Amino acid sequence: MSEEHFVVIGNGPAGNQAAQTLKEKAPEARVTLISKEREGYYKPCLLPEYMAGKISEDQIYLSTVDAYKEKGIKLRSGQEVVDVKPRRREIVLDHKEVLRFDGLILAVGGRPRIPEPLLVFRDLMMTLKTLEDAKTWIEKISRVDRVLIIGGDLTSLAVTKALIALGKEVYFMLDENAFWPLRCNDDMFQDVSDRLSKRGVKTFYNCKLNSMAQRSEHAVEVRVGDDIFEAGLIGAFFGLVPNVGFLARSGLPLDRGLLVNETLNTGFEGIYATGDCAQVFHPEIRDYWVSIGHDNAKALGRTAALNLLGERRPVDVATESLFDVQGIKVNTSWWMEF
Amino acid sequence: MPKVDITIEVCGMSGDGTIAAGGLLNAAMSEAGFSVLAFDSYPAEIRGFGRCVTRSRIGNEEMLALAEKTHVLISLDDEQSRSRIPFLEKGAAVIFDNKPPSYVGEGHAIPAHVEPDINLFGIPFSDLAAEASGSTRGRNLTALGGFAVIFGLPPEIFRHVIQKKFAPKGEKVLQANLMSFDAGYNFAMTAFEDRLLKILTPPETEEKTEKLLLSGNVAIAQGALDANLKLYFGYPITPATPILEYLAKALPEKGGKVLQMEDEISSIGAVLGCYYAGQRAMTATSGPGFALMTELITHGIMAEIPAVIIDAQRGGPATGLPTKTEQSDLHAAVFGGPGDSPRIVIAPTNVTECYEYTVKSFQLAEKYQTPVIVLTDFFLDNRVENVPMPQASKEALKDGNIYPDPSAKGPYNRFELTESGISPRAVPGMEDFMFTTTGLEHSESGGPNYTPENHMQFSEKRHRKIQGALEDLSIPKEFSKGGSLDVGVISWGSTFGSALEAVQKEQEKGLKVGALKITSLFPFHDEIIRGFMERCGEVLIPELNFQGQLANLIGHLHRKDVVRINQATGKPIPASIILEKIEEVLKA
Predict the structure, then answer these.
(1) Same domain for A268 and A232
(2) Positive or negative, the Cα torsion across A266, A272, A275, A277?
C-alpha cells in the first residue's frame, strides 16, 4: 500500500503549523507544503521593521527553507496551485502538474484588500504583505522624500512608524474603509489622527480622494479634498481578503473565504481550511467567523491537521471574543500580539 | 564589474534543439565579452531518445575547466533535466516550460524535484513559440529569450547570433527563430519584472578583444588548413568526425582534397602514401580506429615516413562509450603496435593548443620522419572556448623536411646512420635519389637486412632520432612560485585545466602547491619532470582513465609512489575532486 500523501497549501503560520503537526503525528505520511512565495516561513508583522532597517532579513524568518527538509516536509516554494478537484482528490499546479492527495489543508491566507472605489488607482499604490513587497518598498523608498499612506489598518501604522524612522515625510489619509476588520468610530479616528499628527504626520480625515496622476517616475500628484500635493510613493492598507479566487470552480463552499464547520472541514472528506482564508461555523451563534493574526492562525493550523488525522476537535472560540464587523464575525483575540 | 563565474546548462531530449540553444548561448556570451568554456554531451544514438546537455561556464576571467555546480538550468525536457538537479548550486535558477502540451502527473515536472531555494522561472516555451512563429520548433529560442531577460543580456546580442546562424537557411527560418526568441523575451520581461537577476549585463565601457568561438576539433582542422594540409583521409568516428566534416568543406576551397576511406587502415595507409610522395597529409580517428591503424603506424616508424594522426580519445575499450570522454589511449599511442616502435606523441590541453599543436605536428613529422600522434579527447574535441583568433607563426609553418643535398656525390643512402638519427629524406621524383623502402628491417640503403648488428644499430637509430625530438617539443610548464612544494600536480590533456584551477585555489590560500603541464608525452622531458617531482613532497597525477596511464609512464621518476587520481566515469574531472585530494594529502 502506498504511503498517505497530505498536501498543505500555504506557508503562513496556519499552513506551516498544519504541515509540522501532520509530520509529527503521522511520520510515515508524505507531507507536501506548497507555497506561492519563494521564501521560507517568516513573520509578516516584522516586515515594517525590516523595511526600516531595524532588523535583518534573517531575523524575520521563523523557519528557513532548509528546515523543512530536516523535518521531512517537502516544501514546494514559488509554485502556485491553480485548481483543486475535491472529488478526484487532486490539485493542479500552474505548470500543469497534477498532485493526488489523501488529505488537503487549505491555508492560503489573504491578499491585500483594495476597496472598490480605489481599484482604479491600483497601479499607483503599493501594499505590504510579503517579503517581496518589503524588498520593493526598500528599493523604492530611498529615491523619494514623501510617502502617502491611505487606509489605516495596523500594518499602515507600523509602516508609518518605519517611514518616520527612515526620515521620510508621511502624509496619512484615514479612509472610512480603514481598520478592516474593525469599524472605527469618529472618536477612534480622531484619536489616531491626533497621535499621527504628534509624530509629524500630516493627516487627512473625512476627506475625499479626488484623483491621482503619475507626474514623473518618482512623483504622483494627489488631490485630497482641496489639497493638491505630490507623493513619491503611495501605500494602501485596508486589511486582507482571503486568497480563494482560484477555488471558484472547485466546488468547495465559498463565501468571503472558505466555509468550514467547527472542525475546519469543508464538507469534503479529508479537505480542511484554516487560517485567514477560513470562515468557521460557530454552533452557538449559528454564524461564521473569521480569524486573523499569527497566533490564532497557528492554533487553527494545528487543529486542522489533527482533525485531518482523525480527531474531531472543534475550534474553541468564546463567543465574547467575536466581534461583529460589517456583518462578519471576527475573532480579535489576535489583537494582543500587536 | 563584479566577478562573474557562472555555469549554465541547457538540457533536453535529442531533437529538442538543446545543442543548438547551447551554441547560440555560447555565441551570445562570447559576443557580450565574457569568457566561455562550454561542453556538450549527447547520446550515441542519432535522434529520438537520449539526453542532451550543454554546459557553459561563463566568466569575466579565463575559464580553465568546467565547474561542478550549475547556476542556471534551462530545461527543454523536464524528465531529462531531473538528472541535472543534484548539480544545481544553492539558489540556482531553473527556467522551464510551465505549459507542457498536456497535464502531467506528480513528479513529471521539474518543480517537483528542486529544492525550495531554487528560483523557478516558468515560461510557456511551446505556446509562445507556436503563437509567434506557427510552430513549437522555436521553443528553444523562446527559452533563450527568457534567459536573456532574467540575466540582463541585451536582446540585440542574441538577435545577432540568431541572424548569423539562421540567415543561411532562408528568411522564413530566420524570422521564425527571431520571433520565437522575442516571444520569450517579451513574456519574461513582464512575468518576471520583479525577479530579474541581471547578473550578466555586459559592461559597456570595457574594451573587448575580438575572440573566436572554437571547438577543439575545429581548432585542429583550422590548424591543419593553416599548416597547408594537402590531403585528408578519414573514416567517420565519434568524436573525430567533426574534423572530417570541417575539412570536407574547407580543404577543397584551398585546393586540397578530402577522401572518406573505407576504414581506418586505408586512411593511415593513404596518409603514409601521400607523405611518402612528399605531400602533407593527415587523418583523425578515435580509439577503435586508432587500434586498426597501429600496424601501419609502425610501418611509418620503420620506413621513416611522416604522418599526422589525431587520436580523439573516447571511453573504451573497444566501441566503449562513443560519446563520453576518457584519456585511456595513452598507452596505445605511446606503445601500441608491434616491435620497438618509438614515435612522437603530443597532447594539447586546451582549444588554442589544439590549433598550435596540430600546426606543429606536421613539422615534427617531417623533420623526424615519423608518425606524430596528437592525443585529444572527447571533452577537448567538443568543448568550445572563445579564444583570440589563433594564428601560426611563419616559423611554425615552415616545411620540416630535411632533403638530401643535391650536390652530394656517391650513392644515396636513404637510411643513412647519422649522429642525430635523422637521415635526409628524398621523395619520389627527386633525380638521382632513388631508394628502396620497406617495412622490413633494412640497411642504410633501404634493402632488407636482418643481421643482429644491423637490427641493433637501426633500433638504436630510431630511438636516438625520437629522443632527439625533445629539443623541438614543448617542455613541461610549471605553475608555481618555485622552491619546494608540499604538493605538485602533474597533468595532461583536457584534465590540465581542472588541475590548474585546483592548484590556483590552493595557491590563493598561500599553500605551497604547484602544477606541471606535460604536453610532450613521448618522448618526454624526464629530467625536467624529475626535477619538479624532487621539489614536491607528494605528487598527484589526475587522469581520466582507470589505470593511471601517465602515472605508469612517468611515475618511476619520483622517489616514492605518486598519488593517482583516476576517474573513469566518462565525464571530465572536476577541479573539486583534485582540490579534495590535495587537501587530503596536505592533511596527511
Answers:
(1) no
(2) negative
